[in-house]
Design goal:
4 domains, four-stranded mixed β-sheet, three-stranded antiparallel β-sheet, 19 helices, 9 strands
C-alpha cells in the first residue's frame, strides 16, 4: 500500500527533477509517452508504474529528457531523409545520455533499463526506429557501457549487417569529441555515409537508399513542388498518389460539412487503395511522430459558459428517463455491494442494538457497551476505466447515449466507493494535421506509419471527485470534437494510466 500511495507523488517529483537537472524552470511537463528527441522546453512523462520493479526504466525516460535539455544546444537544421534524421537524432541522444550518466551515476542504470525495454519491444529490422535505436546502443558500446543482453543482441546484429568493425577512425572520433556537439554532428554525418543513408561526393543517386531533402524551404514551397512533380510523373505510383490527393480533397470538404453523414466521413477517411491496404496488413504498426499528440482535460476543451450549456443539454437528455435510470442504478449498486466484504465493530456506546448481548441489557440496563456498527470496506486497488469513442461515427444519438451511460455508471460506481476514470479518444484534425505536414516537408517517405495527431481526453481522473468532474461530461456533445478513430493506441494509453 505504501508504494501505491507514493506513486501519486512520483510524477511531480520527476517533473521537478527534470527542471532542476536541466537548470531550466521554463520546461513544461505533460502526461504521455516521451518523444525522442524531446520538444523544445517540453517533456512527456508516462504514468507511474504499478510495480516498484519497473521504477528504473520509468526514471530512465525522465532522465534522458533532462540530459537532452541540459547538454543539447539548438543548431541549424540539416536536411536529411527520415531514416537518416532518426539515426542522427539517436546518436545525439546517446551522446547526452552518456554525458548525463557520467555526471549522475545513478541515472546510468535507469537509462540502460529504459533502452532495454525498447530493445525487447522492437522487432522490425526494416523500421527506421530500429536503425536509430541500434545506433544509440552501438555508440554506448563503443564508449564501454555494459549493455543488457537484449541490447547486446541488437548491437551485434547491427554490426554484422553494416560491417561496423572496420570503423576504428569514426569510433575514435566519437570518443574524443563526445563533449563537442558541433564536431560530434560532423562525425555523425560521416557515420550516416557509412550506413549509406547519406550520399557521398563520389556516390551516384542509385547508391543511396533514400534521396535527402533539397535545401530547406517553406512548407508551402515543398508542397507546391510535390504537387508539380505529381503532375509531371506518369508512372503508376504517381497515378496512385494523384488518386489519394483527390480523395483527400474530397474528404476535407466532407469533414467540414456539419451534416449527419459522419459514418461515411470516417470510413472514407480511412480508405486506402486495395494494393496499399494488402501491403499494410503485412507490416507492423508504426507511428511517424507523436510530437503533436496531446492529452487534454475536458475542462480545457470548453469555456466555462459552454461547459454549463452542454451539461444542461446532457441533463435534458437524461431527464425523461430519470425513473428508469434510478432503478437500474440502484440494481447495479446492490449487485456491487453484495460482493463487498463487510464487518462489524462491537461493544460500542452507540449504533444498532447488539442482539447477541440482550442478556446484558436486561441484567444491566445502564451498561454503555451494548451496540454495534457496520464498517464499509472499499474495493481495494480497483479502478474502473470508461473509455469513450469520440470519433465521427459516434455523432448524434450514439454519443448522446454514451454520455448518458457514462453519467449513470460512473455515479453508481462512485457511490460504491469504486474509483472511476472516464477517458475519451479522437484526433485533433481530419486526415493528419501537423504530423502529415511534417511528413510532406520531410520528403513524403514511403510507409511512414500513423500520420494522425492524437487527442486523448480526460473527462475524469481516478483521483478527481465525481461532483467536480461531471460538469464537464457535456463536452462529449460539443460540435467539432468528434473526428477520427485511432482505438488501438487509445486502449494502450488507457491501460498504462
Amino acid at each position: 500500500m505504501g508504494w501505491i500511495k507514493n506513486r501519486e507523488r512520483l510524477f511531480e517529483a520527476a517533473a521537478s527533477s527534470i527542471k532542476a537537472i536541466a537548470n531550466n524552470k521554463n520546461i513544461s511537463s505533460k502526461n504521455g509517452i516521451a518523444q525522442r528527441p524531446p520538444s523544445i522546453n517540453q517533456v512527456a512523462i508516462s504514468s507511474t508504474p504499478r510495480s516498484s520493479k519497473d521504477i528504473h526504466s520509468w526514471r530512465g525516460e525522465s532522465d534522458f529528457q533532462a540530459f537532452w535539455h541540459l547538454y543539447h544546444k539548438q543548431t541549424k537544421e540539416i536536411p536529411l531523409t527520415l531514416p537518416a534524421r532518426i539515426v542522427f537524432n539517436e546518436l545525439e541522444m546517446s551522446r547526452v545520455e552518456i554525458l548525463g550518466s557520467n555526471k549522475y551515476k545513478g541515472s546510468k542504470k535507469n537509462i540502460l533499463e529504459y533502452l532495454e525495454i525498447k530493445s525487447i519491444n522492437i522487432d522490425d529490422e526494416k523500421s527506421p526506429n530500429f536503425l536509430g535505436l541500434c545506433s544509440n546502443l552501438w555508440l554506448k558500446s563503443v564508449l564501454g557501457l555494459r549493455l543488457s543482453p537484449a541490447s547486446k543482441t541488437l548491437v551485434e546484429s547491427f554490426n554484422k549487417k553494416y560491417d561496423l568493425s572496420s570503423l576504428d577512425s569514426i569510433k575514435n572520433n566519437f570518443i574524443n569529441n563526445i563533449d563537442n556537439q558541433e564536431l560530434f554532428e560532423e562525425i555523425s554525418l560521416d557515420f550516416l555515409k557509412k550506413l549509406k543513408l547519406l550520399k557521398t561526393n563520389n556516390q551516384s543517386e542509385e547508391d543511396v537508399d533514400d534521396e535527402p531533402i533539397e535545401s530547406p524551404g517553406s512548407t508551402n514551397e515543398i508542397e507546391q513542388d510535390s504537387l508539380e512533380d505529381l503532375g509531371e510523373n506518369s508512372s503508376s505510383d504517381s497515378s496512385l498518389e494523384d488518386i489519394n490527393l483527390e480523395m483527400d480533397d474530397n474528404l476535407q470538404e466532407s469533414a467540414q460539412a456539419t451534416d449527419g453523414n459522419a459514418i461515411d466521413e470516417e470510413i472514407d477517411a480511412l480508405a486506402y487503395p486495395q494494393n496499399d491496404f494488402q501491403n499494410t496488413l503485412k507490416k507492423d504498426y508504426a507511428v511517424f511522430t507523436s510530437d503533436f499528440d496531446e492529452v487534454i482535460d475536458a475542462k480545457d476543451l470548453t469555456t466555462p459558459e459552454e461547459a454549463i450549456r452542454l451539461r444542461n443539454q446532457l441533463d435534458n437528455l437524461i431527464k425523461p428517463h430519470q425513473t428508469t435510470i434510478g432503478k437500474l442504478a440502484n440494481r447495479l449498486q446492490r449487485l456491487l455491494l453484495a460482493k463487498q466484504n463487510t464487518s462489524w465493530n462491537y461493544n460500542l456506546e452507540e449504533g444498532m442494538l447488539d442482539t447477541a448481548r440482550l442478556h446484558r441489557v436486561i441484567a444491566e440496563p445502564g451498561h454503555p457497551l451494548s451496540y454495534k456498527q457496520e464498517t464499509e470496506t472499499n474495493f481495494k486497488d480497483t479502478v474502473v476505466t470508461l473509455l469513450i469513442d469520440n470519433s465521427g461515427s459516434m455523432r448524434g444519438r450514439s454519443i448522446s447515449l454514451a454520455a448518458i451511460c457514462t453519467d449513470i455508471i460512473g455515479s453508481t460506481l462512485e457511490r460504491c466507493q469504486i474509483k472511476t476514470e472516464v477517458l475519451g479518444f479522437t484526433t485533433k484534425h481530419w486526415k493528419g494535421g501537423d504530423s502529415k505536414q511534417l511528413w510532406i516537408s520531410n520528403g513524403s517517405y514511403s510507409n511512414p506509419g500513423r500520420l494522425n495527431d492524437l487527442r486523448h481526453i480526460i473527462y475524469k481522473s481516478a483521483d478527481n471527485s465525481w461532483r467536480r468532474a461531471r460538469k464537464y461530461f457535456g463536452a462529449m456533445l460539443r460540435e467539432g470534437l468528434l473526428k477520427e478513430n485511432i482505438d488501438g493506441e487509445a486502449l494502450s494509453w488507457s491501460h498504462k494510466r
